[in-house]
Amino acid sequence: MENLPNCPKCNSEYTYEDGSLLVCPECSHEWSLESGNGEDTDVIKDANGNILNDGDAVTVIKDLKVKGSSSSIKIGTKVKSIRLVPGASDGHDIECKIDGFGAIKLKSSVVKKA
Predict the structure, then answer these.
(1) Average pLDDT rounded to a whole number, residues 14-36
(2) How far is it, in rounded angstroms, from Cα 58 to Cα 56?
(3) Quick one: pLDDT at residue 35?
(4) CA 108 centroid distance within chain
(5) For the segment 89-103, what is each residue's pLDDT rounded down to a tens digit?
(6) Integer angstrom CA distances of residue 32 from 47, 70, 72
(7) Would you say 111 and 76 are in contact if contact means Cβ atoms under 8 Å apart?
(8) Which residues contact 37 (CB under 8 A, 6 or more apart)?
(9) CA–CA distance, 28 with 25 (Å, rounded to integer)
(10) Are 8 and 51 a contacting pair, CB within 8 Å?
(11) Based on CB atoms within 10 Å of each CB, which residue in 12, 38, 79, 95 is the most buried?
(12) Strand order in the sheet with 30-32
């Protein structure tokens, strides 16, 4: 059996592979196993420079107009369980669901970590 690294969040030794991700069954943390120490991968940061991770909660820091909708996303809207999309060509590197709008993509430059 191959040696998989311990969970970086809770240090559990019971990690397993699920496709290209490693998963911890104790704390449900998921991460990818890159070559090296992982520091050279795409790091997505919020407007304040904090590193964002999948599953984080963020807060919108300015009013956002939504194409195709008469309403907008107001400042202070809290978004839970974000999913990061590194390398998005249009700059929208966060996928999430917002109550009243549904699935939407956001730029990391308009959110702060909650």
Answers:
(1) 80
(2) 6
(3) 42
(4) 10
(5) 788 999 999 988 889
(6) 24, 39, 34
(7) no
(8) none
(9) 5
(10) no
(11) 79
(12) 16-18, 21-23, 30-32
Query: Residue written as tokens 């090296």?
Result: 36
The reported pTM is: 0.61
In the numeric block, the tokens 């839970």 are attached to: 80
Q: Is 87 exposed, middle or buried (0-12, 13-18, 19+ CB in 10 A)?
A: exposed
Q: Return the closest-CA partner of residue 52 out of 78, 84, 6.
A: 84
In contact, 114 and 58? CB cutoff 8 Å? yes
Tell me how far apart the alpha carbons of residues 39 and 71 are, in angstroms, rounded to a whole number: 39
List pLDDT tens digits, range 27-55.
888 888 764 444 445 688 999 989 899 99
Residue 5, amino acid: P
